[in-house]
Write a structure and sequence with these properties.
The protein is an alpha/beta fold. It is built from 13 helices and eight strands. Helix 1 packs across helix 2.
Length: 388
Amino acid sequence: MTNESNHPVVGIKAIAICIILLSFCGLSILQSAQFLDSMQQLNTAKAVQSIPQFQVSSGTAEDTKINGEEQIFVDEQETKNYRAPDFGIIGYPKTGTTFLLYALRRHPEVVMPSEEFCQPKKWFEEMRNISSRPQSTSETHTRYGFKCAPMLKSTKQVEDLVQIANRTRLVMGVRHPVEWFESFYNYRVLEWYLYGFNDIPIPSPFELTGKDTHWRDVSVKYARFDIYMKQLAKVSLTDKEMREMLDHDSMFPKRMSLNPYKIFIYTMEQVNDRNDTRRLAFQQDLQKFLQLRSPLDDFASLPIINPGNSTFNERINICDQKYSTIRSQLIQQGKQASKWIVSKFVESPDVVVSNAEFFKSALREWGKDSCKKKEANGERESAVSSNL
């Protein structure tokens, strides 16, 4: 018997009817098509399995806990094949991702590409290159990772990763939007002068506030971190949230990218924490999440990476009064983003947070002007405490 639902004409009619119905909910034809594409991904996604010869082989498991969540350490057996990545640092830019790359590459159990790697389909080719000059000094326990700071900008790369790996653990950093925008903009200025990324003139920050304008990814709209997290499908979205995600900007395509990954989310205050006890506890939780047996080097003892400091005329101090309208937009977005992250995203069983109370308190500051706070403390310099 022919399954009528598989008939192409019926399928086309059904899609047309769905688009018409969705248009009554306020979605454009393009948004409706994106919405249906996202829903189709959610409805048809199966349990994803790695290519068998690249799976991490199972062995003795040792249990630990982070905030009450069980973590598993795997004693992998040596194989002749290259493994899928064990972890990935996936963003956002200017949230300490390069610093973490540096810190992790120093670890005796870790092997990672030395530069940003954003092509999951070429992972095994990259592993062949890395294996010819091994970094890990561990004879029995090696963890393979990569850094791709813009991975959340377009989650097509997440979908490519799903094709080769089902156990990869993701690490995601966030930052106060005001400080993030200043740091990112100033870093691009530095690159423009020093690294030859000068194909176009440096734009004014005021040119980067719209829905379709960015300068090498620097954009006020990109600071709405929750919009891009929603694509990871870790929590259910309301119709309003889905429409908001699709309509937020036209710079980067939006899609729901179902994946089986655990995510460790942190904020810059945790990386830069001057409270030694709290910072070392954060590092220990990150170590456990990455399934490393030996501790990470104390972050306070490591140098700042990619500082972004310069004396070029185009460098901005976001606390200057002339940027108050940009700060207001970033703060308003910060309120919206922090509310969703705190109330929904971190409640997902797939999301791990170190010291949830401290993390949430840091995010609630996103609704406040960090420049005013620094001024109240007698500090008049840039809003950025550390340009990681």
